[in-house]
């Protein structure tokens, strides 16, 4: 969608969410930003207000279905949402061991349930207006399960396939759906990684790539292209071969 006026961004207190908020901030734009760190979220909001945007914030966990529904429904009633970017997500690895059940479940709660909680309260209004755009933050990690981050890879695979399916379902209703699949982007999430991150991208550059792709209603925004090509190749190769290769890869802590 070109020039959305009312935009919701979850996970907006840092990383890609923060940079997307700043990229869209302009006079005549209303931003609704959510996060779980009040100080960081308010700092982002102030920078967006300085750029001329009207900004409201909400301290809400994307995994909290009731809280998200209450916030988004009230928001859409006041200012019909043009674009929602379901960006909130968490990442964690096994540190070379086995992922705990608690960690795996929490990753799915935020990365998968959080996406559903960000989209479904807004769908009825978008369908009634026959207008709107939904952007889901997946990952290149969602194309092939990587040792060391099973829940994270699986959660992003679920988001990717869900978004691809949803796009087809909503295409005839005037609602665009885009799946965003970044590689390594500088953020608080990647800052904890203790292994080489190929083609690591600056966050502001990633936000511009995403904004440009959303303006064209692209089905998938995957970047940087060398990393995307490498992941697609891994996914296409026989599992017996890629298993051997990936066993040598460093594990996420």
From TrEMBL:
Cross-referenced Gene3D superfamilies? NAD(P)-binding Rossmann-like Domain
What name goes with this protein? SDR family NAD(P)-dependent oxidoreductase
SUPFAM superfamilies associated with the record: NAD(P)-binding Rossmann-fold domains
> Kind of enzyme, top EC level?
oxidoreductase
InterPro entries the record matches: NAD(P)-bd_dom_sf, Sc_DH/Rdtase_CS, SDR_fam
Source organism:
Azospirillum himalayense
Q: Where are the transmembrane segments?
A: 225-246
* EC annotation from Swiss-Prot or TrEMBL: 1.-.-.-
Q: Which UniProt keywords apply?
A: Membrane, Oxidoreductase, Transmembrane, Transmembrane helix
Q: Name one GO molecular function term.
A: oxidoreductase activity
Q: Which family does it belong to?
A: Belongs to the short-chain dehydrogenases/reductases (SDR) family.
């Amino acid at each position: 969608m070109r020039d959305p006026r009312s935009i919701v961004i979850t996970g907006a207190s840092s990383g890609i969410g923060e940079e997307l908020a700043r990229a869209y901030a302009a006079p005549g734009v209303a931003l609704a930003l959510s996060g779980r760190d009040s100080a960081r979220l308010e700092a982002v909001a102030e920078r967006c207000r300085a750029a001329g945007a009207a900004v409201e914030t909400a301290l809400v966990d994307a995994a909290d279905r009731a809280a998200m529904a209450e916030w988004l429904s009230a928001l859409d009633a006041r200012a019909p949402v043009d674009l929602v970017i379901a960006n909130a997500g968490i990442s964690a690895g096994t540190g070379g061991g086995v992922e705990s059940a608690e960690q795996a479940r929490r990753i799915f709660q935020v990365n998968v349930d959080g996406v559903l909680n960000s989209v479904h309260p807004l769908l009825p209004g978008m369908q009634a207006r026959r207008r709107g755009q939904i952007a889901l933050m997946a990952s290149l990690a969602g194309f092939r399960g990587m040792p060391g981050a099973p829940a994270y890879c699986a959660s992003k695979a679920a988001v990717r396939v869900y978004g691809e399916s949803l796009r087809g379902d909503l295409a005839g209703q005037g609602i665009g759906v885009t799946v965003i699949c970044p590689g390594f982007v500088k953020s608080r999430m990647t800052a904890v990684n203790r292994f080489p991150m190929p083609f690591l991208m600056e966050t502001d550059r990633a936000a511009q790539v995403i904004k440009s792709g959303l303006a064209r209603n692209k089905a998938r925004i995957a970047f940087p292209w060398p990393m995307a090509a490498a992941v697609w190749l891994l996914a296409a190769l026989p599992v017996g071969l890629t298993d051997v290769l990936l066993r040598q890869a460093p594990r996420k802590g």
